[in-house]
Specification:
The structure holds two protein chains of two kinds. By secondary structure, chain A is α+β, with helices and mostly antiparallel strands. Chain A is built from two helices and three strands; from the N terminus they run E-E-H-E-H. Chain A has a domain of 56 residues: Ubiquitin-like (UB roll). Chain B is globular and about 70 Å long. The chains are: A alpha+beta, B mainly alpha. Bound molecules: fe (ii) ion (2 copies). The site of one fe (ii) ion has 5 residues of chain B, from helix 6 and helix 7.
């Protein structure tokens, strides 16, 4: 029996929100993946829109290199508004 | 070892899955100590991975085998309302199985392999599903007691150290509370019906009470793998603590149902702030785990037959996928 590919499932819970990853499933093709995702992840009206993405197509950053990869942002605290001193009495800033 | 749907442990004389205590990667220890979550691509010790695969697979198997005792009553539900509810519940259990197989696969195993291991008896499922469902009232007792015990076991797993398992458990737990309530409602209706209906409800509770207590596993002194599972953040509370929590919740609920629990030793203990209760007969549990329960053979035969009878559907789906893919301009999948 040939293994069905793995699909990652994303659900938009309400209009105005983005799709969020909810889990995965196996299905022989995209259409079946969508139908199975509906039955598996939206049995209680959890969503108004579904994406299914072949898991093999996802490119991910590596956890081993996470430090080196994300560190460059660590010393740039001036990107946050809290970095700045605001003189007493100044509002709406 | 942690219990999920119960009995993720071995009977005396069976080889336990002994986790090696050898070197654990520094990063892994740091994650656990920081109460952080472990994710699939982290560097995981083999023993942690093996323990999780075993536990999650057994949990998944329990969910799908657990469809059988209730499936038995779908066509004989007493009303359309009850039938629709029971079908929704059984469908949820199939869903729980799928969430959990998907969580197990993040550990590098294959769902088809796990099913093979179930079918060949190398992996187990919860003993509770090896008891027969003799009357409609059993649908009530299963929802109230079996799903109730499962909830007590599963809620702490929502904080399990392994991210994909914890996330699957959050979905499962959200869905379980309807399961317990519909069971409670069935028993409540029967208990307030004719004397014969009330007797039927009482009989179901009498038969399911002790097996439900067994779902929490052996007493703590007799649960050799628990300490390791606690250290790994897979298990959060001991078997006996969870069992006590369940008894304390069930006693007042039984009163509200107007039914009695089949244990003359149940009484409130002011000093402990808990209910005392009688001793669970674990020899029965171990017999059922070894395959000598009332329905072990039937459950497995049914499961294997369903899988084999479904082969043509899987083949047809493949043929259709191939045909779609071969169409000019077809997307890759
Ligand atoms: Fe379940
Ligand atoms: Fe359930």
């Amino acid at each position: 029996m040939r293994d069905w590919p793995l699909w990652e499932v994303f659900v938009r819970s309400r209009r105005g929100l983005s799709h969020v990853h909810v889990g995965s499933l196996h299905a022989p093709d995209a259409e079946m993946a969508l139908r199975n995702a509906r039955d598996l992840y939206t049995r209680r009206q959890e969503g108004v829109s579904l994406w299914v993405v072949p898991a093999a197509e996802i490119v991910a950053s590596s956890p081993d290199e996470a430090d080196a990869f994300f560190d460059p942002a660590a010393d740039k605290i001036y990107r946050h508004p809290t970095f700045y001193d605001v003189p007493e009495g100044v509002e709406h800033l | 070892m942690a219990q999920v749907y119960g009995n993720d442990f071995t009977a005396p004389g069976e080889t336990p899955a002994r986790p090696a205590t050898s070197d654990e990667p520094e990063t892994f220890r740091a994650l656990l100590e920081g109460e952080g979550r472990v994710e699939p691509r982290d560097d995981l010790p083999d023993a942690y991975r093996r323990t999780l695969v075993r536990q999650i697979a057994q949990h998944a198997h329990s969910e799908i085998i657990g469809m059988q005792p209730e499936g038995n009553w779908i066509s004989r539900a007493p009303s359309l309302r009850r039938k629709a509810i029971l079908m929704a519940k059984v469908q949820d259990e199939a869903g729980h199985g799928l969430y959990l197989y998907a969580a197990a696969e993040t550990l590098g195993v294959d769902r088809a392999d796990l099913l093979d291991q179930l079918h060949s008896g190398r992996q187990k499922y919860s003993s509770i599903f090896n008891y027969p469902t003799l009357t409609w009232a059993d649908m009530g007792a299963i929802g109230w007691l079996v799903d109730g015990a499962a909830i007590v076991n599963q809620v702490p797993l929502c904080r399990c150290s392994y991210g994909p398992y914890a996330r699957a458990m959050i979905r499962v737990c959200k869905e379980e509370s309807f399961h317990q309530r519909q069971g409670f409602e069935i028993l409540h209706t029967l208990s307030h019906g004719t004397p014969a209906q009330k007797a039927m409800a009482q009989d179901a509770v009498d038969r399911y009470w002790w097996p439900s207590l067994m779902m929490f596993g052996p007493p703590d002194d007799d649960s050799p793998n628990s300490a390791q599972s606690m250290a790994w953040g897979i298990k959060r509370f001991s078997n006996d603590d969870l069992r006590q929590r369940f008894v304390d919740m069930a006693v007042p609920q039984a009163e509200a149902l107007g039914l009695t629990l089949p244990d003359p030793e149940i009484r409130w203990n002011e000093d402990r702030g808990h209910h005392d209760f009688g001793e669970v007969d674990f020899t029965e549990l171990f017999e059922v785990i070894k395959g000598n329960g009332p329905c072990n053979a039937e459950r497995m035969a049914h499961r294997v037959r369903a899988h084999e009878d479904g082969a043509w559907v899987r083949e047809a789906a493949n043929a259709y996928a191939d045909k779609q893919a071969a169409r000019p301009g077809a997307d890759v999948a």
